[in-house]
Amino acid sequence: MIWLSLYIAVLLASGYAAAAMLTDRRSPRRAVEIAGMTAALGCAAVPLVLLMLSMLGVRPTRPVVLGLGAAAIVVIVILRLTHRLPQMARPVVPVMTRGEVAAMLVGIALIGVQLFAIFLAASEVPVIEVDAWNIWGLKAKVLYSEPLSPRPEYFTDLSLSYTHLDYPLLVPMLWAGAYGTMGHMDDAAGKTWLVVPVVGIALLLYSALREVIGRSPAILLTALAIGSPAVSRWGGQGLADTTLAVFFLGAAVCLARWIRDRRFTDAIAIGFFTAAAMWTKLEGAVLLISMPAVVLVMTATDRSRIRSAAAMIVTTLLVALPWWIWSRGLPHTHENYLSRLSLSEIQNGLSRLPELMNLVQIQLRGWDWTIPLGIMVLAAAMNSRGWKRADVLALWVVLIVQLIAYLVAYLVTPWKLGEIVPITATRLAMQVAPVAMLLAGLHWREAGASILQPLPGHRPQEADVPHR
Amino acid sequence: MSNQQNEPPANHPSSKPILGYSNLSTTRITAADLVLRWIAAVGCIYLLSQVLAADSYSRRILMSTTNLPRLGPLQEIDAAAREAQSLGEGGNLLVSNNSDPTAVSMLHPRAVYVLWPTRLYAVTPDTSILDSAQIGPATRPSDPAWLEQHNVRATVRFEMERFRVASGPFRVTRVDSASAR
Questions:
Q1: Complex ipTM over 0.85
Q2: Chain A: nearest CA to B175, how far in angstroms?
Q3: Which of A327, A265, A257, A317 is nearest to A288 (CA)?
């Protein structure tokens, strides 16, 4: 347990170093925002570095992981000595009614129960989900046992095609990093890190919502994003969905902020999260289309953004490139959605639409997902002013592109819909729920949930001014 | 409602700047805001009741981490796989041709995961397996040179002790290599 705690400390130290480098020191940030970025970036930075090392022939062993932690601490110390650590905003205690306090407590209780259930599943129970052991857990063992160079036999063993030989490797490497630090493969404890992305979702979403709405609505929306029974059911099992969700949310939060505040560092963070999402799951590759598209459209309407848009795209390419190079030649013997994305396949798939709608409706019926969806739709419908804001429109585009990708994947999947939809529909909902709740908050702002007022005599920098 | 009227007193904690703004006591409650707050709060209460419901996964795991559905049968498979590993003298394993195909289909994917990096071969690596149901009836590798090259030290037979639709219990036995292949 000590080694495992140390691994999580390495994740957080690396995440904090990355967050500090990606934070514009000129404007103070809430501690909760830095904490959220720390968790999200840690889940991306550590496995990505370990994967690069593995491609150079270095396995994720204890000295390697601890060396990474030491490097992160050195970076933090240098940033501290050069006064470049993020500036924290002073916490402010709001005046709240009893009703607001009660609502907040309900939200906190829901978040607490979910996190505790996920922690127990992640730290005490062996892997019991088929996809978790077949796909992610097995790859974690492969990555722990052998470096990626020379390419392990596993990746060309067609008899293991059912384990999806061509799936991205970020989550298995997060897992293998834990094994490396522990010094052995114990899947009951070795996936304790799964709590970190969920905590990251909660903190990142709450901090982004707090920029636009009050404390109690922000907590309620955060609770709705991770409060579905599906999140506690799947979150601690060893699947990649919560990790993808935190990267998707991180990219969305930074995109909205970049559109509002034009910070260069936010553009780099969008690129980093986008590439990390691609390294995590096939669904994450959709961000490679939606994020650059939105960034380029924003840049076309405002040429002063060219530098940061270029930085975003270069960051994405640099981080994604090693996977594209290394994964060339992997056998695509299972699913292979990319090869199925032809017009004729999609047209053929349209005949499955009625069955698909029926199955999705069965999976998502009940109030578990209807409530968050209802809040988002209601907030959007009640507050037409939200539709005039560039950040809101951009997030809608990103969310809708993601949902269209899921729809197309279902239309062309080689699986029978009756088999695949019950397994995947709620997991896909988990991936997009945090971004949907962020959108709900952005619309809610226009309903007057919280009105930002400049302090008397304060002249904020341009970068601080939220668009109204 | 005027925001100025809601401005907190100068010495109130919420007067301190955050991002250059005071955004807390200037809350303007509108009808839409109120409706959204109520729905969100009721939604959270509903979800809390769902995650704590008697038959929910979170409730089960909060009560006990050892009494989860599927855990028992999987532990039986894991035990069978480790028993097979102990028969392999530190080398890789081959599933015998006279194994029960249903048992192999059920056991093989989990055993491959549990035993890795020890390999449990049921087919040659150039045979594409997309579904575990294909593994049971597949033809096993039999070329002695191939088996030697892949460090296969033992052939094991998987059987179910009695016919059950659900997984396990399984029996693992080491069989004579010649007869098995």
A1: yes
A2: 23
A3: A317
